[in-house]
Design goal:
alpha/beta; Arc Repressor Mutant, subunit A; D-Maltodextrin-Binding Protein, domain 2; 8-stranded mixed beta sheet; two-stranded antiparallel sheet
């Protein structure tokens, strides 16, 4: 198979449409269909289901996708090495981020990195810890921000500790004047609860301290969580970084015993990073790693 067939396969899998794939790649729909048919003929099995609503990967196609991504990533790495040999700082970096890093660190990272390396393109994918870890495994992203506890087998460079805080409606006086929230202050209160894939470190703290959460509000993003707390629908635990860009009428308190997450930058294989990826990796570590 050719690099074009790999690119068509990846783009079609992401877009869910041969027509959209043709638009993205600047080809005709018939050329896309012909490329996929030839690829399936060469493979000996179908990689796409065709339907009125579009296309989707077969089980065989799902199994091939990480390998196709690896081939395309290797080609990108090769082009970056050639550019580096010619004295150019160019290439593409795909980075996965979770919500709080996306709203706090990422804008500065993109601004200053691309000011320094204007020829390097950066593509951003936002999702949960589970999303970022899966994107790293399949090669959809080159780098990914994760908490150390959520990285699993991924290589991760720890950057900063991010303590958990308790967020309560304004004027609740739940801390009883102590300036912090103890386990017994939290126990028994209704919670606004985030899914486990959204912040596993909070779930870990709840389990370790036998805090049974009662909640009818199961949300994903940080702002929705805090907004519901503001209106009195419960309290929540939140990494302190999440609260930097959220301006609601709530109060935040440190918790005792102290707990939190360690934010890090993860990569599938630190020894096989393309030049542009390594430049961004080194920039992030240099800028955000706590001494």
């Amino acid at each position: 198979m050719t690099l074009l067939s790999y690119l068509v396969f990846k783009t079609a899998a992401a877009s869910g449409s041969f027509y959209k794939t043709a638009e993205i790649l600047g080809l005709t729909p018939s050329a896309i269909s012909h490329t996929v048919s030839n690829m399936e003929k060469e493979l000996g099995f179908a990689v796409f289901y065709r339907g009125r609503g579009g296309i989707s990967l077969t089980n065989s196609g799902q199994q091939l996708l990480p390998y196709v991504n690896n081939v395309l990533n290797a080609e990108e790495s090769l082009q970056q090495v050639i550019a580096e040999m010619n004295g150019l700082k160019a290439g593409l970096v795909k980075i996965g981020v979770f919500s709080s890093v996306c709203t706090t660190w990422l804008p500065d990272i993109l601004y200053h990195f691309q000011e320094k390396y204007p020829e390097v393109e950066v593509e951003v994918f936002q999702g949960t810890y589970d999303d970022v870890r899966e994107w790293l495994k399949t090669g959809q992203v080159d780098l990914g921000f994760l908490s150390v506890s959520s990285a699993g087998e991924m290589h991760i460079e720890p950057l900063q500790a991010d303590p958990l805080v308790c967020v309560v409606p304004a004027g609740s006086n739940m801390d009883k004047g102590k300036g912090y929230m103890a386990i017994e202050d939290i126990r028994g209160h209704g919670f606004v609860y985030q899914r486990e894939s959204t912040d596993a470190d909070i779930q870990k703290f709840l389990k370790e301290n036998q805090l049974e959460v009662v909640s009818r509000h199961h949300v994903v993003d940080d702002l929705s969580t805090v907004k519901l707390v503001e209106k009195g629908f419960g309290i929540c635990l939140m990494p302190a970084l999440c609260m930097q860009d959220i301006h609601c009428d709530v109060e935040t308190y440190p918790i005792r015993p102290e707990a939190g997450r360690i934010i890090g930058i993860a990569v599938q294989n630190p020894n096989l990073m393309a030049p542009a990826v390594r430049m961004m990796y080194n920039y992030i570590v240099k800028t955000y790693k706590e001494v």
